[in-house]
Amino acid sequence: MSLRKDFIERAVEQFVAAIASILRARKEKRYGDARALIRGTSLDVLGMEYSTLILADAESTSRLLGTFARVRMLAKLVREDGELMREQGDPLTADSRFLLSLELYLEAMSLGLNPDTEDATAIAELRGSIDTASLSERHQRMLAQA
Description:
This protein is mostly helical. The chain has helices at residues 2-27, 31-46, 50-53, 58-65, 68-87, 91-110, 117-129, 137-145. The N and C termini lie far apart (33 Å).
């Protein structure tokens, strides 16, 4: 059991470091580096290609990832990707990423995520930045209950 716990702790540490690197690259306007970090983090921490994970709907992707922790990680990566797209002048792609990120957060909550302050802030910001009418009926109900 401690081997599994060590593995999970290492994955979380690796993810936190990757998010810090992504934020730093975004701040320095090294967008290509930030995108590469998102793709690499997805593969290294979640074990799947980022482009594959964002092709499916949030519900299917969350079933594939299996745990709220992994779904939450992807929600954060997708949100960062949305920020990159917005900063690069692609508001349509940014909005689609923000929508997916919010849906992933809702899926993580359905899997047992108890949002901390950072998650709650992200969810509120995402909610304010998209047209929630674009959410599926299921996700609209989940958002109303959140």
